[in-house]
């Protein structure tokens, strides 16, 4: 836990407002939560309380380093990225959210990687600020205005937009005025040139 705490300290020293622990999408924290990737037989595996231990200790170390008000965490309940599986999603994440609430982290950021009914129950289990990513990351659909409005009605406090910001330099205006959102061209990802990242136009109004 020393590494994430030190990274958090350095981020704040560099001028960041806060840090978000990546507990989603099959990365390290997600692997500890997983029922098929985490095959440990010690205190960090097996039961729900064992599998959430690493996430809680990582969050606690970050809170100690930079403060709860500067610490958030991103989670993908039931996500199957890179082959991870979770066979007890509601119990697992309800227990995790209970412990995160005790730490009073600034927010939880959930991805729509499980059925809506489960996500709504997790929203009820989490007493703090909830950021919602309404569509599956790396999926076919980008988050749009309708997705955002639906989750705001269902209890989210904030909505995260990823790919839509790449393709729409004026995304806030488009959302505010219910304008069409342009799709992103994934063929230009990580190409090292200007095409894609710097060439998307703002919305062109008709005369």
The CATH top-level class label = Alpha Beta
The helicity comes to 25-40%
CATH domain topology: TIM Barrel
Strand percentage lies at 5-15%
Q: What form results from the Cα inertia axes? A: globular
Q: In total, how many beta strands?
A: 5
Supply the CATH architecture. Alpha-Beta Barrel
Domain NADH:flavin oxidoreductase/NADH oxidase N-terminal: 5-180
Protein name: NADH:flavin oxidoreductase/NADH oxidase N-terminal domain-containing protein
Organism: Actinomadura meridiana
Pfam families: Oxidored_FMN
Quick recap of the structure?
Pfam families: Oxidored_FMN. The chain has 207 residues and is of the alpha/beta class.
Write a structural description.
Strands 1-2-3-4-5 form a five-stranded parallel beta sheet. The termini are far apart. It is built from nine helices and five strands; from the N terminus they run αβαααβαβαβαβαα. It is α/β, with parallel strands linked by helices and 207 residues long. It has one domain: TIM Barrel (Alpha-Beta Barrel). InterPro entries: Aldolase_TIM, OxRdtase_FMN_N, Oye-like. It comes from Actinomadura meridiana. This is NADH:flavin oxidoreductase/NADH oxidase N-terminal domain-containing protein.
Draw up the topology in text.
Layout: H1 2-13, E1 19-23, H2 28-33, H3 48-51, H4 53-66, E2 71-75, H5 89-103, E3 107-111, H6 116-125, E4 129-133, H7 145-153, E5 158-159, H8 163-167, H9 171-176
Parallel strand pairs: 1-2, 2-3, 3-4, 4-5
Helix pairs in contact: 1-4, 4-5, 5-6
InterPro entries: Aldolase_TIM, OxRdtase_FMN_N, Oye-like
Domain NADH:flavin oxidoreductase/NADH oxidase N-terminal: 5-180
Protein name: NADH:flavin oxidoreductase/NADH oxidase N-terminal domain-containing protein
């Amino acid at each position: 836990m020393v590494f994430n705490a030190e990274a958090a300290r350095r981020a704040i020293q560099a001028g960041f407002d806060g840090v978000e622990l990546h507990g989603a999408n099959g990365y390290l924290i997600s692997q500890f939560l997983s029922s098929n990737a985490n095959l440990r037989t010690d205190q960090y595996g097996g039961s729900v309380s064992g599998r959430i231990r690493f996430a809680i200790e990582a969050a606690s170390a970050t809170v100690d380093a930079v403060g709860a008000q500067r610490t958030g965490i991103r989670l993908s309940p039931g996500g199957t990225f890179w082959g991870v599986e979770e066979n007890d999603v509601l119990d697992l994440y309800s227990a995790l959210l209970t412990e995160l609430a005790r730490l009073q982290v600034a927010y939880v950021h959930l991805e729509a990687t499980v059925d809506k009914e489960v996500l709504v129950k997790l929203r009820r289990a989490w007493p703090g600020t909830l950021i919602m990513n309404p569509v599956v990351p790396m999926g076919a659909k980008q988050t749009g205005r309708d997705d955002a409005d639906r989750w705001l009605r269902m209890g989210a406090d904030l909505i995260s937009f990823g790919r839509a910001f790449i393709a729409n330099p004026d995304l806030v205006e488009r959302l505010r005025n219910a304008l069409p959102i342009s799709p992103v061209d994934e063929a230009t990802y990580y190409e090292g040139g200007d095409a894609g990242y710097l060439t998307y136009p703002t919305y062109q109004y008709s005369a």
